[in-house]
Amino acid sequence: MATSTSQHALSSIKLLSTGCLHPDKRNCRVLSVSVGRRCPSARNLGLLCASNSQSSVIEPVQLPRSPKSGVTPKKSGESALILIRHGESLWNEKNLFTGCVDVPLTPKGVDEAIEAGKRICNIPVDVIYTSSLIRAQMTAMLAMMQHRRKKVPIILHNESEQAHMWSQIYSEETKKQSIPVITAWQLNERMYGELQGLNKQETADRFGKEQVHEWRRSYDIPPPNGESLEMCAERAVAYFKDQIIPKLVDGKHVMIAAHGNSLRSIIMHLDKLTSQEVISLELSTGIPMLYIFKEGKFIRRGSPAGPSEAGVYAYTKNLAQYRQKLDGIVQ
């Protein structure tokens, strides 16, 4: 049964899904991943990093160059990158393969999204990226409803010129009190092909545990007419490099609400995990992960502590100052 908080949150939010896997996404190149140091908490980030205050500096990224001048843009101080796997969905609860089927959150999933929002309520967010699937969009919107700045997350509609025009905001003051939410099919969950909608236990009984485990946990073997993790990684990481890293370079604070496999792919890129390490990576639903982008490097900071604890604010001076500023505004 949903809590009163969940019921209020659900009644306050109405989202429209914009689609699933891009129809042209079938032939995928092999993703080339350079291997660096092993992530010390790569086995269960959702649990281990939540209590681990150790930071890890990831190798510098290749900063994008200005298309006009060819000069690398000037780097600003530091930017926050928050990754959140969506809360529990109705098919998670039913133990069904979900993939790109567009199902909403359960009441428990709503509570997980709200709790995630409380954990990051003092961390700056300028722009939100989600997949095109409603469970990720709900998680992002519900989480931001807990933020102390009380800005309104607004999904941008650029599917057509008319959709763009009809969703325009004509008040500059209202724009300042809003956070853009950008949806992208490239951040969708891995497409499970002919497994979608099947019960996981019944599928194991039918095809054998070893075969199902190979489909689910190998890096480069897809299920029938579906995507492998490698294929999912290619689209997710390419989008991250092309669209999200430039925002971080510009000093924007970014939140990504997505899925287990698309986020695994991004973390594989950030932490330089091998194909064997990433298939062992577990991400809990509704647990935010924090990275700091500074001087071209990603610094992993684990999971933010609860809103009333010092936790994450001890990691950087800028985050501590941001919270102090919020305290002054709110109080």
UniProtKB/TrEMBL annotation:
Enzyme class: isomerase
UniProt-listed Pfam families: His_Phos_1 (PF00300)
GO biological process, any: glycolytic process
The keyword Nucleus belongs to this UniProt entry's keyword annotation: no
Family per similarity comment: Belongs to the phosphoglycerate mutase family. BPG-dependent PGAM subfamily.
GO terms of molecular function: phosphoglycerate mutase activity
Binding annotation for substrate: 85-92, 98-99, 135, 189-192, 200, 216-217, 260-261
Coiled coil: none
Site residues (Transition state stabilizer), renumbered to this chain: H259
Catalytic residues, chain numbering: H86 (tele-phosphohistidine intermediate), E189 (proton donor/acceptor)
Superkingdom of the organism of origin: Eukaryota
NCBIfam families named among the record's database cross-references: PRK01112.1
Swiss-Prot/TrEMBL keywords: Glycolysis, Isomerase
Stored SUPFAM superfamilies: Phosphoglycerate mutase-like
EC number assigned by the record: 5.4.2.11
Protein name (database record): phosphoglycerate mutase (2,3-diphosphoglycerate-dependent)
